[in-house]
Amino acid sequence: MLLDAGEADRNPDTQRDHLTALPDELLLQVFEALGRISRRDLCSVSRVNKHCHRLSDAVLYKSILFENPEFHLTFSESLSRRPRRGSAIYEVKLSYPSSELSQLALDAPVHSSHLDPRHSDSLSRTLSIMSNLEKLDISVPDVLLHGIGTLFNGPFDLACLKSCSLFYQCANDAYWDLRENIHIFAHPTLEELTIRRAKLDEKGFDHIERPHETALKRLHLIECDINDDSLGDLLELPEALEEFVMTQLEEPEPELEESSDNVGDYVLAVQSQAEFLKSLTIDFPSLTGRKVLRMRDFEALTTLRLNWDYQLFGKSSKKPRLHSVGLPPILETLEFFNDLGTDDEVTDLLLSTIEQKNIIARTWKKMVVVEGEDGVPRAIKDACKEAGLQLDIIGAMDTDTDTDARTDTDSDSGGSI
């Protein structure tokens, strides 16, 4: 028998919760969409019942941003009361400047928190509770350097971590000491690691504490001052590193103390990963190239990016060249971030390499260069056309009158020959 609306309202047994009757997978999608529109409304939904509260928590706490030290302390207190909530967190970003960690803020009491804000162990304890954490982004003052570093000392903390970015703000914009966080390289599940403005001396990684194999696939060293021998030791740990990026400013501040001045030293440092490395980028303008790089062992490398052509071919010298360039056997893309043609002997070697492409670099498809003040040498353009090599010129305008020398033109990013 059908009941009218009035009778249904008077009979609690006939009332149904249509929302929670939906499958959990569908409810999570609904809550995620609602959270993107209004987290306040999602918080209201979480108070409907225990079921909605549990599923809403999985969305509300999936990604956490700590914008000031007071927040991470009060949040630490909250997780200490409800540690299961930590398992819902998959992404954490800590990002606040040194001014937020002033002595006044450190000494000030934090409402509802029994933790001492003058010690960084409260933060490391908070992070260790997040048993399913996959992404960790650190950008905080260096007073927290040691405390966060203790997270990486044991295999049971952050057991699901896949991506990590580390940057500690130091006085006078100095480089922070990577040794305090060096155990991040021993993390077994980490796949992507970005380190900004760190330094590491020649002591490297202690052989006594060296792990066996790690899952690291991508390593980015941004504006770091890293000893090449220590880097070589660290790069023996990944089972199969696929991407390596190292960048530095043209005029680093403060001056570099640990870094080599030879690009070949860093190519040698990644030699242990030659079997697996697919992309190698060294954007380090001040590095020289005293000898031709020999990279035939890099059997998986398809993309190579350098600042200067002489970093690949070696600068001109009075001594005879005993070795020709050894490009990776399956190289597809070669890119130079700076002008070509600054060294006549190097330009001749580049021309010779292009002309012999079908012999020494059969899979080489594209070369990317910048326009430069004097443009790209005509001889290079002609050689690329003759060898069937695509030449992408960043910043070039469609002003070349020799239309036969062009097959395509991109007016926004440059020309393709």
From TrEMBL:
Source organism (scientific name): Neocucurbitaria cava
Pfam families according to UniProt: F-box-like
Protein's name in the database: F-box domain-containing protein
Chain segments annotated as transmembrane: none
Gene3D superfamilies in the record: 1.20.1280.50, Ribonuclease Inhibitor
Coiled-coil ranges from the UniProt annotation: none
Domain F-box residue range list: 20-66
Family annotation (InterPro entries): F-box-like_dom_sf (IPR036047), F-box_dom (IPR001810), LRR_dom_sf (IPR032675)
